[in-house]
User: Fold this.
Amino acid sequence: MPVKHIPDIVVGRLPQYLRSLQRMALEGRQVTSSQELGERLGISAAQIRKDLSQFGGFGKQGTGYDISFLIRQLRTILNIDHDWDVAVVGAGGIGSAVARYHGFTDRGFNVRLIFDSDPEKVGTQVGEHTVQDYAQMAEIIEQAGVHIAMIAVPSADAQDVADKLVKAGVKAILNYAPISLNVPPGVYVQYIDPSIHLQRMTYYLSR
Amino acid sequence: MPVKHIPDIVVGRLPQYLRSLQRMALEGRQVTSSQELGERLGISAAQIRKDLSQFGGFGKQGTGYDISFLIRQLRTILNIDHDWDVAVVGAGGIGSAVARYHGFTDRGFNVRLIFDSDPEKVGTQVGEHTVQDYAQMAEIIEQAGVHIAMIAVPSADAQDVADKLVKAGVKAILNYAPISLNVPPGVYVQYIDPSIHLQRMTYYLSR
Assistant:
């Protein structure tokens, strides 16, 4: 499907639209509107219409959006019309929880590999996965052709892990360590840092 | 400290500045620049200067920013110059990992309470915390005066949990369930959904 350049800020909203639409589909719904999507997401209906019009009109004036059609389109645009294998680095509390989490599979992702450098953890089972030795990580990831990884190691180690992942061919990193990573062009990083979100809210709370 | 209205988009960047500055402080650094901060964060130096000037100038032209002074100012502005107690709802994989995580304490937050409705989990230990019964949650949170909570329950239960939390006086919710929550004005919600971040990156990956 040919897709023209979409601004990054719009790309960032598409997964939210997809998530809401998938929830509506689970509720057995067939049609929705920009108004309803907007209310669910706290985004204006006008913004949603504008975003979706960036890559062609999906709704007809007055009849709303066909939910299953829009889900298929968004999955194609977001490049998750096939599943991606994911590696998790770090088998501590967060890494283990993420590797055991079953919510990725219907969102386009399968955790396939988990690594740790702690000899006590290597060989143990985390959900369906056996923790493998960090020393073999680069080779295993390269051979498996895995392009997405999650980093769940202490901050002090996160940049080294990222460097190794990039060398092994990883193109997208979800970083749970509370530190900014440097990666070369063509590699993407996103961050999960709950404290950042909490601090963003405490600003608004009365002292 | 009197603070004028700061746009929400700027508020969202302040915790990132604070995190980078705290890391520099840990490295023993005393002074930084908007250029250096920008390189660490992937934000332009001009943007950082503009953001920080919103609430008064913290740096002098040519001498840079005093790191410890700026940390103190940002902590005051973000309302984390004192610690906040936090309740975790859900003692599954994610909830337990979050409750055990030690990275919140130097960011302004202390997990104090954890709840679950599963009788098998109530009374068990998660790190330093004993899992308490969800049936008593509202009362305990209200009595403790806790205003911040994290939701780590299945999507189908998340809105009910949020409603109960709001009634108990919670003003800020960090939601790990992959669903949008409706809350009344004056209550803030932020979301942690790794799939959203992953999908935002797969858009850019070659098929």
